[in-house]
């Protein structure tokens, strides 16, 4: 046994630490995109996403209120502007230091009154209220600038998702592509299952000449690169009048998914107990009844495995959609294509890119974590593709 | 028509059609063509049972034949033809191939593909094996495995965006937002690097994306294989005084060799077909071209079907040994 019990604590520690490191290494790239999708464009370019969890220190440059409008004469010849330096919006950070000149950054603490000479003074409190005081000449013209060293708490926003998904004016939004992807995926997942299930049953439980040859053919077709199919099938689709469109992409995904579907389902069905099937036959059930009433319900795990594979594969596909679906009008674009376009046109706008990419990643991730069991089972049964 | 409605109709027509076909064909066979009654009942049942498998198989055979088998031959044919204006074709023999071999971009794609084939399957399998072994007896091993398996669900395009952010470079005087450049500068690099534009090495930065995706797959399968190893063999080795490293390399690995080969070949096929990652991240610029993207360029940008098909045939040729080996194994297993 190489169980943990027989090992020195130091080895156990090393083991745990190395696994933690690997897991972090694997998680970090995705996490970066996830965190970035909740930050504004300014935040993303101001600091790396890994510092987004911590309060950010930044120097804000703000002007006091316009003296010509807001100054008040308190006593003879003394004018005062009072107010809230951050205006009406609530400020969530803390002021650590401030100054009235860029050459003396951070020299005053909150609450200090700084003497600007000739009787002019400026006071800034920790809550952002300020008093700017001086004579008629000093409290006029342009408002006093204040440089504030502030610590702002981590801030996340859903605006990116709003913009990418729901903004009607956003011509590069993901909503249409999302719906198009869904339109491609659902029929392309369901139809091959049905066709494959019947074929798999015939290959598993029916006896006929040529069966072994057909099984070998399916195994061979498993690895045929779909690159070979592009031009011949596109010509074929054009010649029978389908052209580029949903019907073509559904048919193509069905064809390309079938070998794996038949292979997985056959391997599973062969393992079902022979007794059940033979008893049913003795009782007078036809092959069709056996298939529908016994085999299909028992094969649910294998059906689920394949459904997940086909779902992930069609949702994440780019090549098949590019060739068989997306025409010049761009009305039928899918998410993967839309993201590739964004990489070209919005290369630096990480808030848009990250959010768009995450919109397309989110659904497969949910499916993945919810159905991981079936996915693993399917992988173990059909690790040829 | 609204695509969503069209999708609904397709599903109903598709599924309904399948059900009607299978049910109807069976009914036809049993009740009309060869009814199991009358003077020839016994002969009829036998006949019906001879035909039935083909009824079940017909849609699948049609789809497989049309969408996978026929294209192999059609592409082979196209690779010997040149497309002339007006949908005419001329037979040109091996000219498409010789022209292609003479192109520097093709040589580059071939070299890069071989590089990918040497690095990605080896690295993914080795990493997968390492993680499978390390997490084997860990109390939280399943959580760790889940996370490393997760990239399997992420599209190549999504992964491309993810890693573009990792590799992002910003001018030297502003904050770095790509973690690789951040680390590079923290550990003594002099200026931020545009990782994807450094010829030769950029191939490896692209490969990392595929390794990141495929390691989880290798891990899942190898982890199951490791668990299938009989305990006695390991116990015997411990009693004989073997240390954990020896147990791993001399007892465990030899027992899972066939699984390692399966994982290796599966990842090899995925690597051969790699397209989306290169398409989205560099599009073959800066000497990162690979065969699948070269083929796409020829087919859909240059509209040169002859050379595109020739490139596709090269990919097919590279897959063929694995195809033959898989079929050979499957037949051996069935006997």
Automatic annotation (TrEMBL), chain A:
Subcellular location: Cell membrane
Main location: membrane
GO cellular component: a single term: plasma membrane
Segments forming domain ABC transmembrane type-1: 178-371
Domain of life, source organism: Bacteria
Membrane topology: Multi-pass membrane protein
Gene Ontology terms: biological process: transmembrane transport
Keyword vocabulary terms for this entry: Cell membrane, Membrane, Transmembrane, Transmembrane helix, Transport
PANTHER family associated with the record: ABC TRANSPORTER PERMEASE PROTEIN MG189-RELATED-RELATED, OSMOPROTECTIVE COMPOUNDS UPTAKE PERMEASE PROTEIN GGTD
Family under the similarity heading: Belongs to the binding-protein-dependent transport system permease family.
Name the record gives this protein: Maltose ABC transporter membrane protein /trehalose ABC transporter membrane protein /sucrose ABC transporter membrane protein
From TrEMBL, chain B:
Entry membrane topology: Multi-pass membrane protein
UniProt superkingdom: Bacteria
Keywords for the protein's UniProt record, in alphabetical order: Cell membrane, Membrane, Transmembrane, Transmembrane helix, Transport
PROSITE patterns membership: ABC_TM1
GO biological process, one term: transmembrane transport
Domain ABC transmembrane type-1: 110-326
Subcellular localization: Cell membrane
Membrane-spanning parts: 6-29, 50-70, 114-135, 147-167, 204-226, 260-281, 305-328
Predominant location category: membrane
GO cellular component terms given for this protein: plasma membrane
Family, per entry: Belongs to the binding-protein-dependent transport system permease family.
Descriptive protein name: Maltose ABC transporter membrane protein /trehalose ABC transporter membrane protein /sucrose ABC transporter membrane protein
């Amino acid at each position: 046994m190489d169980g943990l019990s027989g090992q020195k604590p130091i080895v156990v520690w090393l083991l745990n630490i190395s696994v933690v490191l690997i897991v972090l290494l694997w998680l970090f790239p995705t996490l970066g995109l996830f965190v970035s999708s909740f930050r504004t464009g300014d935040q993303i370019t101001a600091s790396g996403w890994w510092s987004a969890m911590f309060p950010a220190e930044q120097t804000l440059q703000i002007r006091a209120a316009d003296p010509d409008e807001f100054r008040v004469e308190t006593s003879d010849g003394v004018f005062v502007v009072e107010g809230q330096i951050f205006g009406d919006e609530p400020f969530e950070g803390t002021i650590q230091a401030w100054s009235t000149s860029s050459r003396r950054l951070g020299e005053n603490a909150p609450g200090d009154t700084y003497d600007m000479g000739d009787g002019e003074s400026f006071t800034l409190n920790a809550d952002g209220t300020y008093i700017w005081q001086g004579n008629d000449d000093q409290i006029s013209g342009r408002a006093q600038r204040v440089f504030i060293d502030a610590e702002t708490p981590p801030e996340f926003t859903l605006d990116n998702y709003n913009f990418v998904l729901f903004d009607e004016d956003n011509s590069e939004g993901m909503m249409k592509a999302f719906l198009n992807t869904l339109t491609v995926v659902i029929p392309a997942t369901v139809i091959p299952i049905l066709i494959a299930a019947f074929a798999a049953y015939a290959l598993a439980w029916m006896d006929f000449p040529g069966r072994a040859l057909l099984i070998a053919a399916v195994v061979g077709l498993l690895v045929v690169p779909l690159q070979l199919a592009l031009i011949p099938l596109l010509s074929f689709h054009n010649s029978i009048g389908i052209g580029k469109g949903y019907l073509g992409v559904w048919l193509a995904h069905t064809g390309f998914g079938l070998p794996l579907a038949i292979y997985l389902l056959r391997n599973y069905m062969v393992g079902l107990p022979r007794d059940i099937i033979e008893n049913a036959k003795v009782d007078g059930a036809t092959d069709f009844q056996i298939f529908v009433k016994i085999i299909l319900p028992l094969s649910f795990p294998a059906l689920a495995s394949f459904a997940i594979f086909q779902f992930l594969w069609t949702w994440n596909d780019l090549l098949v959609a590019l060739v068989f679906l997306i025409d010049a009008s761009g009305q039928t674009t899918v998410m993967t294509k839309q993201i590739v376009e964004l990489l070209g046109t919005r290369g630096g706008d990480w808030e848009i890119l990250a959010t768009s990419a995450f919109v397309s990643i989110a659904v497969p991730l949910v499916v993945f974590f919810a159905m991981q069991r079936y996915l693993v089972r399917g992988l173990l049964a059909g690790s040829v593709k | 028509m609204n695509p969503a409605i069209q999708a609904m109709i397709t599903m109903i027509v598709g599924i309904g059609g399948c059900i009607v076909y299978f049910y109807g064909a069976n009914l036809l066979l049993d009740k009309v063509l060869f009814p199991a009654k009358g003077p020839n009942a016994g002969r009829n049942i036998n006949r019906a049972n001879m035909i039935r498998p083909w009824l079940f198989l017909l849609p699948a055979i049609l789809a497989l034949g049309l969408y996978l088998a026929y294209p192999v031959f059609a592409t082979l044919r196209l690779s010997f033809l040149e497309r002339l204006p007006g949908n005419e074709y001329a037979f040109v023999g091996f000219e498409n191939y010789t022209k292609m071999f003479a192109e520097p971009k093709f040589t580059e794609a071939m070299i890069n593909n071989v590089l990918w084939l040497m690095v990605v399957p080896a690295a993914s399998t080795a990493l997968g094996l390492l993680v499978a072994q390390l997490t084997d007896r860990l109390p939280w091993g399943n959580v760790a495995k889940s996370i490393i398996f997760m990239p399997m669900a992420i599209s190549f395009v999504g992964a491309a965006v993810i890693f573009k952010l990792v590799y992002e470079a910003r001018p030297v005087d502003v904050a770095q937002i790509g973690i690789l450049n951040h680390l590079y500068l923290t550990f003594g690099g002099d200026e931020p690097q545009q990782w994807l534009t450094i010829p030769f090495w950029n191939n490896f930065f692209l490969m990392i994306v595929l390794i990141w995706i495929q390691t989880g797959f290798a891990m899942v399968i190898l982890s199951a294989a490791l668990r299938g190893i009989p305990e006695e063999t390991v116990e015997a080795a411990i009693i004989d005084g073997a240390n954990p490293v020896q147990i791993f390399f001399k007892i465990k690995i030899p027992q899972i060799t066939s699984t390692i080969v399966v994982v290796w070949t599966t990842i090899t096929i995925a690597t051969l077909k790699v397209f989306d990652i290169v398409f989205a991240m560099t599009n073959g610029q800066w000497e990162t071209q690979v065969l699948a993207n070269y083929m796409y360029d020829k087919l859909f940008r240059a509209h040169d079907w002859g050379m595109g098909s020739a490139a596709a045939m090269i990919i097919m040729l590279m897959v063929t040994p694995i195809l033959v080996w898989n079929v050979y194994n499957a037949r051996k297993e069935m006997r």
